[in-house]
Design a protein that fits this description.
The structure is a homotetramer. Chain A is an alpha/beta fold. Chain A folds into 2 domains: about 5-85, Alpha-Beta Plaits (2-Layer Sandwich), CATH 3.30.70; about 90-285, Rossmann fold. Chain A is about 35% helix and about 30% strand. The two termini of chain A are about 30 Å apart. Chains in contact: A-B, A-C, A-D, B-C, B-D, C-D.
Chain lengths: ~290, ~290, ~290, ~290
């Protein structure tokens, strides 16, 4: 199997002199042409992060052979790493409740090819979005969440996700709190959109909180989900102006656009393996 | 004494039908020409807010006569109101510590005439800014604040403010917490700049807090000072992007520009009597 | 027929003293409660512009009776005016070619009720968007445009628009230039989105032009269509950052989001009768 | 002479495989620690650009020795390159006319140390800014420009610049057009701020042009000066919202803040050697 036109190398390791030299020398030896490269040395953790996109036009190897050649180097520097076809599509499930603005946005970016992923299916605790998802030819799993038996519902959610062989879970305004064990299993692979400019207004009804406080901007934050509500590593956020004449409904309306935009940008960064989690923060190699 | 070219009318009162009609009819009777007008009905408080700028070219009265004509109407509708020369300069004191970026910005806008106020003087607990202020021909009161006798220092600050006959106090990165009684006396007339996007990161070292949380934007908030720290009515705020490669020092650097800009905009809104305080929120009639 | 809960008054007239007084006095006499009001005196044209939203809870008239009462006043001041149910839906046709990001965005805002209009149908010179529009239950008129007989195509477009009884035409990346007579008939009612920050990069392939010039932002502009290409009155515009590493394709990608957002905002302003055309400029009473 | 704590390497060369490997291998051999690195392959020109900041704590060489070691590699790859103390201050002259908002901003960033440069002096065709510059202890050369003998004035400007041994010339709202030969001699080292969002509104009175066109944003652009007016390579630009109620004076006022901010950011990028000129465009390695 020949190499894909471009391969992506993502790695992190303890920081020391010579990492870039070793990696780029190997890439040059294999006749790889670096088309995009970013690295970062995190001072607090003394850890090094790197992402490279390599054009393979002059390389005469299989992907597995490239990995073989890379392995000793990865061991020497104690790297967490992945090396993959840049065009690889991650398998994604979108979870949604009734609010469908983020879902609509993601479905559009998916069907137009703007975001590069395989949409395995949509899971919802409601039926509202079923027919729109169906038009896209995408499976829709309706898993109701009963207040007195959430465990059963989340077990069903997890089975569905495992059955679909999901890599990345997107909470596109899914108004349920995932159980900690699910968060742990898919750590760094569940992306939520919270409708506030975190850390302001954690928890329910953030626009109501924003209205009460009288802020002049409302925002949205996309982050990896952890066991602690709205406290996971932030991937991306943005905000838009509001003013005294906006009531909560109007804040919600203008906020929707920010939510959809922020979630889409965060998902793109994740799909392109541009995000590294380091403690409760992220390193993001933006395009 | 003839009328100034433009007069400014600012009022609030319990909301009911006929306020705009009554006010605008009176202005028309007096041959005033409305050049800028804004009003707002606050639903929660059922209160009405209005600001008008009136060209007086065709009016044949003194300012006091206009006020006389307005008084019965104000009583009828139970208004809080003021009617003044639009060009009137409020008397301002700027309080500063060592960080001088906001001070530099305000001094420039003052000396260039961009912001319309009388700068009575600068008060500081340090000497760092003295010579720069002196170049402007502006009095500089150095009032050191000793940890074990803050009361004495704030009494001196208050005396200085009273002696200068100050209307509005600007805390341009003044790193001291004013005592509650001073906040009360100058309620709605002390403007602070806090170096975070409130309500995120209340209190000391907000950039350090922001760095720890891993946010992707840092901001600044200008608000009226109340007895509760960083919790007063917000006038204006803004934010700017940051990322993983910024350390705290770089956050502080990019944040400075936002702080200076936000404070200058908030002060302009205040000087032009565009801000109404309603509970812990503001109505802001932006230009 | 009782009055709707809210009525909207939009007017412009030669500027003079007493307009606001006359209008607001009449509204008060009719027991109307002003919930939103904006006015503007344009200095160059000496023209006055006003928009009011009036709560009718205490009014005991029909809409036609209110209009009757308003008519003498409108004549006295020589007003262009309209007085309508605030909730009235304008009848809209969307014209689209192959690029469907703006269409997708508008369809979502329409079906979710975020934008208040009646979607009479979609006209396209291509078939690409047909099935997606059909899912919405919206008519789709495919009118191909042949290079050598554009007149016939535009005649068909016009017949379709007349048959659908259209008020407002939205060019949602419709890649054809409408004939001047159509622009004239629907003057002030055809809204285009141009994919540049006008007046930069008029005409075809603006992202290519932007790439060649090496600008650091790309933008989009929504304007009323006039006979002169991309030169009509601007309603709304916005821009987003780009940089040296973006090729034209990436500029196009990030630009799409700006285009959709700007067009949606412009359409909202138009639907809510917040836009006045004055020469080749607009007065926009934003919410 | 020991190495400074950090050195900066900036280079460009024809693109080919192995450049990064060669450079990073050499740096590692010399025990340099890369703390910041960016590169870019320009597709149109097939040219490669790189900027590295290297911590020298473990290097045992002089700066000249490092250059010696680098020279063969530079020759092999046909590089344009520089290798310098990262903390090196470029010698700068600021040229200004009457508008002093950019000057005030730059002087503040200079005296606070936020921008790292040596301010050799200020040149002006007016006396307005003299005393403010003098307060800073900075030389002020008043060189009047007579309409009928501009050549003499620009000869004097050039002599002054040469006498001050200037590296970088900043036109901080200098309202004179420099002669082509001066632009040529200091090619890539004269930075102008133009008060429009280029390429919109080239030439004089851009705010008036913007007002006439009815745009909804006004902006500013910082670019390297070339013989063609306002057409040189763009370094940085930004814009701010305006609306129908702003007259030209208000556009000028809100534009000033954008001008000062854009010029300061562009100058920072230039001082830190983050900008490469490639034809009429720039590669900018932002921090």
């Amino acid at each position: 199997m020949p190499l894909p036109p471009r391969i992506l190398l993502k790695l992190s390791c303890p920081d020391r002199i010579g990492i870039v030299a070793a990696v780029s020398t190997l890439i040059a030896e294999l006749r790889g042409c670096i088309v995009e490269a970013q690295h970062h040395s995190d001072v607090s953790s003394r850890r090094f992060f790197m992402r490279q996109v390599i054009d393979t036009a002059e390389m005469n190897l299989t992907l597995e052979q490239v990995r073989e050649r890379f392995r000793p180097l990865a061991q020497k520097f104690d790297m967490d790493w992945l090396l993959r076809d840049e065009a690889l599509k991650k398998r994604v499930a979108i979870l949604v409740s009734k609010q469908d603005h983020c879902l609509n946005d993601l479905l559009y970016r998916w069907r137009s090819g703007e975001l590069n992923f395989e949409l395995a299916g949509v899971i919802s605790n409601h039926l509202d979005c079923q027919s729109f998802v169906a038009w896209h030819g995408v499976p829709y799993a309706h898993i109701a969440v009963q207040k007195d038996d959430k465990a059963a519902a989340f077990a069903a959610v997890r089975r569905q996700i495992e059955q679909w062989d999901i890599d990345t879970i997107v909470l596109a305004r899914y108004m349920q709190i995932l159980p900690p064990e699910l968060c742990a299993v898919y750590s760094g692979r569940i992306i939520n959109i919270h409708h506030s400019f975190l850390p302001s207004f954690v928890g329910p009804r953030p626009y109501h909180q924003a209205f009460e406080r009288g802020v002049k901007w409302v925002g949205a934050t996309s982050h990896y989900v952890t066991a602690e509500l709205d406290a996971g590593p932030i991937i991306e956020q943005d905000a838009t102006r509001t003013h005294h004449a906006h009531d909560v409904e109007q804040m919600i309306r203008i906020g929707r656009d920010v939510e959809a935009a922020v979630l889409a940008r965060a998902l793109r960064l994740h799909l392109e393996d541009r995000v590294f989690v380091i403690g409760n923060k992220t390193v993001v190699f933006a395009a």
